[in-house]
Amino acid sequence: xxxxxxxxxxxxxxxxxxxxxxLRRRVFEERQPYxxxxxxxxxxxxxxxxxxxxxxxxxxxxxxxKRQAPKFLDAMDADGLHGDLCRYCSLGYASTRxxxxxxxxxxxxxxxxxxxxxxxxxxxxRVFSLWAATFGAELFEIDHPGAGDLPPRxxxxxxxxxxxxxxxxxxxxxxxxxxRLVERLEAISGRxxxxxxxxxxxxxxxxxxxxxxAVRRLIAAAPECPVRMTEQITNVMATQxxxxxxxxxxxxxxxxxxVKRRVDDSVAACPGERARLMWIGAGLWHDTAFxxxxxxxxxxxxxxxxxxxxxPDGYIRYGLDDPMAALASRTASFNExxxxxxxxxxxxxxxAREHRIDGALVLRPHRMKASGTGRFFIERALEDADIPVLPxxxxxxxxxxxxxxxxxxxxxSFLDTRVL
Amino acid sequence: MQEPCVVASxxxxxVEIVRTAGFRPVxxxxxxxxxxxxxxxxxxxxFPSRLRRLVEDALTGRLTHAARIVIPRTSDADxxxxxxxxxxxxxxxxxxxxxxxxFDLLQSRGPDVPAYDVARMHALLDELSSASGRMxxxxxxxxxxxxxxxxxxxxxxxxALRRPVPRIPGSEVFPLLAAFWEMEPERYAEMAIxxxxxxxxxxxxxxxxxxxxxxxxxxxxxxxxxxxxGAVVVDEVGPWGSGAAGEDVRIDDDPVAALxxxxxxxxxxxxxxxxxxxxxxxxxxxxxxxVVVSLPPDDAxxxxxxxxxxxxLNARGIPHLxxxxxxxxxxxxxxxxxxxxMASAASRLQEARHG
Lengths: 420, 355
Description:
The complex is a heterodimer.
Chain A: H1 7-29, E1 35-37, H2 43-48, E2 53-55, H3 56-65, H4 69-78, H5 91-97, E3 114-119, H6 123-135, E4 138-143, H7 154-157, H8 168-189, H9 195-221, H10 229-240, H11 246-264, E5 275-280, H12 295-298, E6 300-304, H13 306-315, H14 323-331, H15 334-339, H16 343-354, E7 359-364, H17 369-372, H18 375-384, E8 389-393, H19 404-419
Parallel strand pairs in A: 1-2, 1-3, 3-4, 5-6, 5-7, 7-8
Chain B: E1 5-8, H1 15-20, E2 24-27, H2 36-39, H3 49-59, E3 66-72, H4 76-90, E4 100-103, H5 113-132, H6 138-159, H7 170-178, H8 185-200, E5 209-214, H9 221-227, E6 232-236, H10 255-266, H11 274-284, E7 290-294, H12 306-316, E8 320-323, H13 333-354
Parallel strand pairs in B: 1-2, 1-3, 3-4, 5-6, 5-7, 7-8
Helix pairs in contact in B: 5-10, 6-8
């Protein structure tokens, strides 16, 4: 059994902690600017003009994992923000707005020079406006035009035929918005964006995602899952925020090598594996132990989450003559790929088949309205593909209503009655 | 024979465009009826009543007469509803349904947005014109803008009878104002002017004056609830009541651009920039004695504005109340008790202000 973590996982965690410490030092001691971004903003543009960027979702996950979320969320409640508002995208804001309510990890977020968000769900404009006002910082918004044409099997078009994935008027709009973003970043950093460097960076991103694609294939094909889903996520998340960097590519390769060694040595995360599970939705950051809780009792192992799988299918763009257009084509439809019909359901069923999934747990996030949509379509598509589905009612950062024992009992019952 | 219509899910779809293409606009609104067919596909707590109603009607054959179903991008729930309906058609769950059109109106402040909206407005006009076979000129569009502006002017006469001195309850005037979106402009103007003339002769209403804000309501049930406590709803932030008419659409060389500017700026909804909404609310506070903030369970947006609004109201000494119920469901006894308390406090404020 793979009781010990991968070396890559420990390295990824250490890198993130050190990276954040370096960021704080740069901001406080060297007065360097940094940016606070939604996860679906093109980080590459920031890195190329030497503005480090922190992901809102990553920060929320860290706050939740450090078990500080309930304190900040209680402060939000006390301030009159009602309980049906999204807590995932706003937990970071809460940690800034109510600093005395809890202990922000690693000293907390310093004041960014810029916040940047894509206006996917309706609440993003609100949350980021409040957050920017609290910091006294600038906000740059990337609007999200709606997709009117969604061709089937998007993951087959995305790599080589990405222009066919996004209608020309939407692509042009996102390109011109990103060009304005670049103007702002150049003004802030005093550095010009080198377009050749952008192309090279996107080529490196392609290489990184190709490595993750190879890891994904290893996991899908191995007789038993060689690496737990939680470790997959740690390794992917650490690299995604600095994707295309020298460290990220080297780390992705180290991760691959270790997983490959495990496969070659027939090392399984859960030897005697009886059920392969997939998790659909954002991670349950306040209770990541949930994902390994059924290995001993049922030999049931979580094999798949979107975090590893989405990189290769969502990020790779070949044909980089116009790198900004390629970047825009990736940026334009994140939400549709992951949550909404027809794209999310058909991709997830495809992934389930590739990974020989026996059962799917689908997050029902009460407060994350955008992530909560499309669920019924996904659940039905999986059941139609003979993959049993268990919906899980939970908030990914708010543990206050989470009954860990009860949730585990429900999953055990699901495994007993529908999967095994 | 029924006049051909275009069904829209929110009044950010320009009625001038719909009429220019030769269609009658029909706006879907919420109701308290159950929506069992829609509930199979729409997750709870995300979609407002009007969108549940739209999907219910689509799945039960009640929209077969529509030439097009137009869904604007002015809220995420609308956009998702568009994607759902398209998928339900693709999957064959429903077949007797008009083509579904996304009207991708953006409302953020980026410099690229106005041109994008103009292009989308043109695309909508082209789509509807191809459906009707009526190719419209700029002059046709200007004519429809002029007609709608006439109706807007009449609606403003009704609005003037609500504040500062109310002569008509909100629950009575709301349907008159909401009719702006669907009635033929000449008939609407005639009806509104006639109603305004009669209402102007009424004595002022004595109750405390209430502004209804938060998530925009598309019906007057909440008005009835509030007014059952002796208050008068004199205004609401949203596109259905006092906000239905708004300012005129400018008439110039580029009618499509004029409409794009008007609807981007004036369409109140989930993607209206927060500072615009805040200014709108602030501008109304001088003429009200209390504020009710409606934040139904599907609200993902307006609740974020509440702490700042509350602090502003407290600073001005204006009583207020936050209602979490769905406007189409019965308020709880606790809601009624809170409304009673708010009405009493508002009456005291009214007396202090006006004697």
